[in-house]
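I hope you will forgive my troubling you with a question about protein structure. Could you please explain, in whatever detail you think fit, how the structure tokens follow from the sequence? Thank you for your consideration; the sequence and its tokens are set out here.
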Amino acid sequence: MDFIMTIVEQGLIYGILTLGIYITYKILDFPDLTVDGSFPLGAAVTAALITHGVNPYLAIPIAFLVGVLAGICTGLIHVKCKVRDLLSGIIMMTALYTVNLKIAGTNNVPLFSQETMFKNSMLESIFGETIPGYMKIVLILLVVLIAKFLLDFYLKTKSGYLLRAVGDNDNLVTALAKDKGNVKILGLAISNGLVALSGCVFAQEQKVFDISTGTGSMVIGLASVIIGTSLFKKLTFVKTTTAVIIGSILYKGCVAIAIRFFDPQSMKLITAVLFLVILVISMERKQKAKGMAAGQKGGKNA
């Protein structure tokens, strides 16, 4: 039971990150590698705030806002400096490594003796010294649902539709007398804000900040998005934001099961192999779908 609970907890935390990558990968079609820097950025900000006595719940919106700033910087490098999308992310990811070290003060900050969103005086006053184990998953789920519903709401606004249009047809945005560059910057800001928020919750759940926590975040997020969107593609009643969160839980489950049968030191290799398998299956499905569509079109023309 503890094994399953751990998978769900980790899957939900990375589900917030997956929501951010969904924006850049699926909506903006922007390969944003800033993610590998903005995830530990959220964790570094959280560690710095908590060790200085700031309320752990207040660290959540602050981490999100700092992530937004990182996304804006990536957007400015791409839009204003005319640097290619992939390179913009790499530049910002590299810069954030130093920024994260400066914020945290060191490459590892333990939070075991500090109050976190999962263990603090407020929860102890309600439940006593022994806080129920289920409270951790309840609090994580609450943060995930708030992030998901706010993103769903935003995507239904005029600004949200413009964001979708930039990824599908940026000429349409220009035709509407809107600056497509500014729309991209906004999308990157929201995306990295969500990624940093995920890093914030992760640091409080693990009770430690480590500079290497962001390594492979992009791979985890992409794999989760591909799993979620592929599995629930035909189920129209399941929103894409819900699908990618479920995809994150499923991906974490696959990794956890694989690690049970292999050396834990092989985790990164297992992650890479799983991502490759998911990518290949996804590409094969797309090719089959295109082949069927072409066949039906040819039949009609005949």
Q: What stands out?
A: The first strand starts at residue 108 and ends at 110.
